[in-house]
Design a protein that fits this description.
single chain, mainly alpha
């Protein structure tokens, strides 16, 4: 497995784990984990499936939470 593919796979797994944390009620931690995973990935790799999964996580968060710092951090990481 090449380095970019390995990094992308780890990022996808982290985002999926973050989605599980959100589903289990820990939205703040979920957003922190997903935003941190996106932050270490080169911008060119934050596209396609990775961007889609992180966007799905963000969109699954009720709008009343979108002003919370961790949720905003995820939103900013997606921008």
């Amino acid at each position: 497995m090449s380095a970019p593919t390995s990094s992308m796979t780890r990022t996808l797994l982290t985002i999926d784990a973050a989605a599980c944390a959100h589903h289990d009620g820990d939205t703040e931690q979920a957003c922190r984990r997903a935003a941190a995973a996106l932050a270490v990935l080169p911008a060119g790799y934050r596209t396609g499936l990775i961007h889609a999964r992180a966007t799905d996580l963000y969109q699954s968060i009720p709008a009343q939470h979108h002003r919370e710092p961790a949720v905003r951090a995820l939103h900013n990481a997606l921008a």
